[in-house]
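Protocol step 4 of 6: structure prediction from sequence.
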Amino acid sequence: MPPHPLADAPDLCRLGVAALTEGYRTGTFSPVEVARACLDRAAVVHGRFNAFCLIDEDVALAAARASEARWRAGAPLSAIDGVPTTIKDIVWVKGWNVRYGTRTSPGITAGEDAPAVHLLREAGAVLLGLTTTPEFGWKAVTDSALTGITRNPWNPDHTPGGSSGGAAVAAVTGAGVLHLGTDGGGSIRIPSGFTGIVGHKPTFSRVPAYPASPFGTVAHLGPMARTVADAAAMLDVMSGRDLRDWYQNPLTFAPVTPVMPRLLAGLRVGVWQTPPRGAVQPEVAAVFEVALRTLENAGAELAPVTLPGEELWELFSAHWYPGAAARLAALAPETLPLVEAGLREIAAAGARYTAVEIIGAAGRRATFGAAFEQLFAAHDIIASPAVAVTAIEAGKEVPDGSGLGRWTEWAGFSYPINLTQSPACVVPAGLGDNGLPVGLQLIGRRGDDAGVLAVAAAFEALAAPLTP
């Protein structure tokens, strides 16, 4: 078994939310000490794996000092007060230059925080910096002409996935505890699976978004962390109403913390093991089978499930490609040659969709989503591999020799769940024979984030840990 990427991290960088806040409460260590350790770690991690496009020591230490004063006064703002946190470089942070991973503009020095960032800041989170993303978050690997190639700490020849790849690298190496990612087709769950961390795509609109994504209602924001409990703590803080997000459901969501691992006896698990396109790699299939036996041995009842009939790759493309076209249409024409060729290609394909075709795709999506929800009449949870393959070679969109054309063709366990807007959590399941992590994806009905996280916590407690 290769060494875990956290193995050489300082002790303060290994701790999760509960241990940190207990240390703050007792005075064993302070938010300032932890922030300094994580800032130093972030610099080391960035030098090795290219995980950050901005590290702001001044902002982080000012927030940590304020948190330290609150803890000394016995008045922390929340359960994550003083916890080091990173933000993906497509989410607005007031005063920071958000570049979206592109060379087409000097970026946006945000005049206000995005809703999720505002909620994190109000809870006392210590923001360390911005993590790397591919250009406009368009693909499931993390490299761009702006920031270069971000690499997987388990094996730097491989990608950490994307588009929240920098966040995944920061999480697994201890450069922060909580990490804000986005997921429009798997961009939280794919890098979580590739790096052996926990990533949760919440029910759509649970975490408010602003500005609205050009990729529309397939796009979610959510937490990435090393444990289910930490991801849940972050999700609770970010769950809230924000009137800037018109897409947001005005209903309130039940808290997901404290996470109580669900008893698995009698849990009805639908097993989804055939992606819409491509095949499951043998290393992935072997680890997934062990994960299923873990659930079964704990009393879960397994039954195969097939997703409702629809050409899902084509249906997702009919949403994703026009979104890419809308994103590039907003750019100054003279900057378009700076855009990555693959993104220009899917944007051109998206521009060829007619209005009638786009409206038709929305209708077919509604049919698929309703049929998917009906699966939960017979199943409490649906389990699948996080990704059909282990981490591919860094700097590639598809594996060499695969015959695939686009990243979506190997990410078939991800994007269908963006179409349904269901909550889905990826939790580490083990290492393949090639030494690379494999994740288990657990999917629930819309609104049941708490149920999904409870099953994830139960599996996490039973599975062989990847951590040192």
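Step 5 (inspection) to follow. DSSP finds 13 helices and 15 strands in the chain.
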